[in-house]
Automatic annotation (TrEMBL):
Residues 2-29 form the DUF4351 domain. This is DUF4351 domain-containing protein. It comes from Microcystis aeruginosa KW. InterPro entries: DUF4351. It comes from the Bacteria.
Amino acid sequence: MRQLSVKQLEDLGEALLDFENEADLLHWLSQNHD
């Protein structure tokens, strides 16, 4: 999480509203890394 850009953190904040479980978070992180 510390390696995410400000834009990625903003996008993650919005995406968190749609996550249902940890797998959703892990999937998002795998799709949104540099």
